[in-house]
Amino acid sequence: MRSKQMKKKVKDMKRKLNAYFEPDEEFEAPLLAGEPLKERFTELHEALVSDVLVSTETLALHAPVKHAANEAAGLAWTTAFPLLVFPLLFTEKVETVRQRDERGRRIKAKSAELMVEAVV
Asked: What is the pLDDT of residues 29-75, one digit of tens each?
């Protein structure tokens, strides 16, 4: 269920915004660096992981999801904007973990089916 909500959020983030600013308009956007950036990133990391783990009923997926989060975090830190990149990377890696788990379940079910046929 959470996965659908995350996909909707990502879809909403992709919508086009038409904004107009005067040529001499200036913005002040404080850049996060050093400890403040690490703290915000850690908060984001923990929030996203806990959201996914709460919606993940299969306990066996908890460790792979945490591993996916750490992998995505490592990749995000190599970019200029880790806070922007991390959520999407994490979402993609979690989807890969879920697909791999589903494939494993199908293979086990098919194998069990074949074993029953072989024994009978």
From this structure: 666 667 777 888 888 888 998 888 888 777 788 899 999 999 999 99
DSSP state of 60: G
Does residue 83 contact residue 48 with C-beta atoms inside 8 Å?
Answer: no
In this structure, is the dihedral angle defined by the CA atoms of residues 61, 59, 48 and 41, taken in order, positive or negative?
A: negative
The C-alpha torsion from 84 through 88 and 91 to 92, rounded to 10°, is -140
**Tokens representing 21?**
């600013």
Residue 72, pLDDT score? 93
Domain range annotation of the chain: 33-119
pTM of full prediction above 0.70: no
CB 41 within 8 A of CB 73: yes
Cα–Cα distance, 6 to 9 (Å, whole number): 5
Torsion angle (degrees, nearest 10) of CA 71, 76, 78, 80: 180
